[in-house]
Specification:
The complex is a heterodimer of chains A (212) and B (399). By secondary structure, chain A is an alpha+beta fold. Chain A is built from 8 helices and 10 strands. With 399 residues, chain B is of the alpha+beta class. In chain B, a hairpin with a 2-residue loop joins strand 6 and strand 7 (385-393). In chain B, helix 2 runs antiparallel to helix 3 (62-84). The radius of gyration of chain B is 47 Å and the shape is rod-shaped. Classes of the chains: A alpha+beta (212), B alpha+beta (399).
């Protein structure tokens, strides 16, 4: 196995400098997510609430418009106290892993970095230098969690007297479940205000200099 | 002026919107902060930990604690998702009412602009009507709705009265000119006629003395000339009747006895004609009895002549109008020819054969009624008959 490491420091990112970009023999650039991204206070707080934190990596070469995507989803199972990781590499490989803690997760990420884009040689597009840019977006919850929250919020909006009547959880649940009303236009507008927006965004850039 | 009002309105709308948005912002954000207070998440997190701890301590109830745990976790997750979307939530909570308020203001603005345009158009219309009023042209009020509509109707009403009055004055002036002309012509004819009669008498006496043998022939010629002079004198006398109408001296009189007397005295005047009175009773008006009788008899005369020997009916119908009483004189004759309907009140316009009438009757009747401050109008004339309206005032002074 022949690997070549390229340490190219360009513009400092929000989380410090770019992580190392590694080319694997299969012809893919691989990058490990820095641990400080996972250990950020706001990220950790969301992570320990049981929400799925998604890292979306979008990579582009400066010469072409082709984009390559890799996704890493991290969810902490609070009851079982394990980290459940789902990853989809840019080459289409899918994997699901469980780790006992964040340190193991970070170690695994360092050992088996994400494939983010094919190397120029593997695509046959060799040229004089160029840059590879990777934008990492951190989304605090998954689509299904967003939908669940949306439904819950819609139900809450449909029972307006829940606060004033001081209904118990059980009775309120019943009221929510019995409510067949689809809600008014305002309730729909409000409940649809949940968007999967990235809460952090990092941009890494590597100068390739015709290698490897 | 209107544009300035509109500008003020727009500025007020903008201020209202700004105030509304500001207050909405100040009201919504505290509530959102309260609902998404991070301390609640921390407490929920503690509750989750507690459920876990309790499940470990009491394995028999672990399933129950697990269920509680899942519910609490779901709530915590939902709260976290909402917190992640709090900016969008806050934006929508502010945007939706602001949008609705803006829509309401825009609607109000559109209505205001429309109202202003309408008002401006109505004012222009009023100005045009005032110009028409000044020019004496007829005014047609389109609507009586609203204050401007009522003003427009009032202008139209004033215009009508003004035009009617002007028309009456003009007619009166025309008739007075005709009256004066008649008087002068009559005078011019009558003076030489008198001389002619005297000179004819003298001439016949001289001729009779000079030629006694021809006295009989001279006498016959004299008689013939004198007959012609008499006829000419009679014509002049009738001609001057227009100039001798006399001044109307109206007084408040009851109509019922007046009309009853008229019918009583003239019932047999026109053979085959049935004369009757109907309509409103108990009315009184300002009129000169002698002259009004003259008018009504003249109209009845004309009606009887139009009906002819076949017989028919002449009705005198009393109709009450605001400040007026109208005696409608109608017959069931063949009607007046369309060609002279417009000039029927002018002097020397007649439907009768030459030598049967001077065509002064209706002109005199019109003059009398105008002198009363009333009027005489042709209301209807067709194959079913003719109807004249004798308009009398119920109050006020003569024109």
């Amino acid at each position: 196995m022949r690997a070549c490491l390229l340490w190219l420091l360009l513009v400092p990112g929000l989380f410090g400098q770019e992580p190392p970009l590694v080319a694997d023999p299969a012809g893919w650039w691989r990058v490990a997510l820095p641990l400080d991204l996972l250990e950020d206070a706001s990220v950790r707080k969301k992570l320990y609430s049981g929400l799925t934190t998604t890292f979306e990596l979008e990579s582009r070469y400066s010469q072409t418009d082709d984009a390559h995507y890799a996704v890493l989803q991290v969810r902490y199972e609070i009851w079982e106290e394990v980290f459940v990781i789902s990853r989809v590499d840019a080459d289409g490989q899918v994997g699901r892993f469980r780790f006992a803690d964040l340190a193991q997760t970070a170690a695994w990420l360092t050992e088996d970095p994400l494939r983010i884009a094919p190397t120029p040689q593997s695509t046959g597009r060799t040229g004089p230098g160029g840059r590879l840019t990777c934008r990492v977006r951190l989304i605090p919850f998954s689509q299904s969690e967003g939908r669940l929250a949306e439904d819950w919020f819609a139900k809450v909006l449909r029972v307006p007297d829940a606060v004033t009547t001081g209904q118990s959880d059980a009775s309120r649940e019943r009221a929510l479940d019995d409510s067949s009303d689809g809600g008014g236009i305002f309730e729909v507008l409000m409940s649809k205000s949940i968007r999967r927006k990235s809460i952090r965004s990092v941009r890494w850039q590597w100068r390739l200099d015709g290698r490897p | 002026m209107l544009h300035r009002q509109l500008l003020v309105f727009c500025v007020m709308c903008a201020l209202f919107l700004a105030a509304f948005t500001y207050s909405q912002h100040k009201l919504v954000n505290p509530w959102l902060k309260l609902a998404l207070n991070p301390e609640m998440s921390e407490r929920l997190m503690d509750a989750i930990d507690n459920q876990k701890a309790l499940a470990k301590l009491d394995p028999e109830e672990a399933a129950h604690y697990r269920e509680q745990f899942q519910k609490t976790q779901a709530l915590l997750q939902n709260m976290e998702v909402l917190r992640a979307s709090h900016e969008e939530l806050s934006r929508r909570y502010q945007l939706i009412p602001a949008l609705l308020f803006s829509l309401a203001l825009a609607l109000l603005l559109i209505l205001q602009v429309r109202h202003h345009h309408k008002l401006e158009s109505r004012l222009q219309q009023l100005r045009a009507h005032l110009e028409q009023l000044a020019a004496g042209e007829p005014i047609e009020a389109r609507s009586e709705r609203g204050v401007l509509g009522r003003v427009e109707a009032m202008i139209a009403e004033v215009g009508d009265a003004f035009n009617q009055s002007r028309r009456r004055v003009k007619q009166l002036e025309n008739l007075q000119q005709w009256q004066e002309s008649s008087r002068r012509i009559a005078h011019e004819i009558k003076t030489p006629l008198t001389s002619l009669a005297l000179e004819t008498q003298n001439l016949s006496q001289l001729c009779a003395r000079a030629a006694p043998d021809h006295a009989a022939a001279i006498g016959a010629a004299r008689q013939s000339i004198e007959e012609e002079i008499r006829q000419l004198d009679e014509f002049t006398r009738r001609f001057t009747s227009f100039a001798k109408i006399g001044t109307a001296q109206p007084q408040r009189e009851a109509l019922d006895p007046f009309l009853a007397n008229l019918v009583k005295f003239y019932a047999k005047t026109w053979p085959g004609i049935r004369l009757h009175v109907n309509g409103a009773t108990g009315q009184s008006a300002e009129f000169d009895k002698r002259l009004l009788r003259l008018v009504l008899v003249n109209l009845c005369n004309n009606a009887a002549a139009a009906i002819g020997a076949g017989g028919g009916t002449i009705s005198l119908t009393v109709v009450v109008k605001p400040a007026q009483v109208i005696i409608e004189v109608s017959d069931d004759g063949p009607g007046i020819a369309a060609s002279i309907r417009d000039t029927v009140f002018e002097p020397y316009v007649s439907t009768k054969d030459v030598g049967e009438g001077m065509g002064l009757g209706l002109a005199i009747a019109k003059k009398i009624m105008l002198d009363h401050g009333g009027d005489l109008v042709l209301q209807r004339s067709d194959a079913q008959g003719t109807c004249f309206g004798v308009v009398l005032r119920t109050t006020g002074e003569a024109a």
